[in-house]
Write a structure and sequence with these properties.
32% helix, mainly alpha, 0% strand
């Protein structure tokens, strides 16, 4: 007859000793800031470890890159007016190293990142022409 092991007691291990972690990827918009104290309050009684903090960034309006892109957009008979994009993108990571850039698209901003997001073929063709002219004329950037 097989022997039966005595039932083990159900030990209580404090959660802090398990070594669990929660990763929060929170991109910060240009008009926001991370308030570490607020996050510490949310995770209390656990400790907060800020792994990476890329501050929000904007390319200056008088940037050579922006002026150059406005020229290219105007060449394609599109509105070269600057529009602020209250969102986040990989551009923030580049801006922390001083790299200037623009975010461009032919999709109206109110259509971006919504449930029925779509781009019309005619708008894709407009965007293709802009990028082609951008590539053709990038050597002229030094003159700005």
């Amino acid at each position: 007859m097989p022997s039966r092991a005595a039932p083990m007691a159900n030990p209580v291990i404090p959660f802090s000793e398990i070594g669990a972690s929660i990763i929060l990827d929170r991109r910060v918009l240009p008009n926001e800031r991370i308030v570490v104290e607020d996050l510490e309050e949310v995770v209390y009684p656990f400790k907060l470890k800020l792994v990476n903090n890329i501050p929000p960034a904007e390319t200056p309006k008088d940037s050579k890159v922006i002026k150059f892109m406005q020229k290219i957009v105007k060449m394609n008979e599109l509105d070269p007016k600057l529009k602020g994009l209250v969102a986040t993108s990989e551009l923030s990571a580049y801006r922390q190293y001083g790299v200037e850039g623009v975010i461009f698209g032919t999709l109206p901003l109110e259509q971006a990142h919504v449930a029925d997001e779509h781009v019309l073929i005619k708008d894709l063709i407009k965007g293709e022409k802009v990028f082609l002219d951008l590539i053709k004329n990038v050597g002229g950037l030094d003159g700005y």
